[in-house]
Amino acid sequence: MASMYFLFLLLILIIPILILIILTIILKPRPTKIPIKGRHVFITGGSSGIGYALAHEAASQGARVSILARNVDKLEEARNSIRLSTGIDVSVFSVDVRNFDDVKKAINEADPIDVLICNQGVFIPEEFDKQEVDTIKFMMDVNLMGTFHLIKAVLPSMKSRKDRGPCSIALMSSQAGQELIYCDERYCIVTMLAHLVHALPY
Ligand SMILES: NC(=O)c1ccc[n+]([C@@H]2O[C@H](COP(=O)([O-])OP(=O)(O)OC[C@H]3O[C@@H](n4cnc5c(N)ncnc54)[C@H](OP(=O)(O)O)[C@@H]3O)[C@@H](O)[C@H]2O)c1
Question: Domains along the chain?
Answer without folding.
Answer: 37-200 (3.40.50.720)
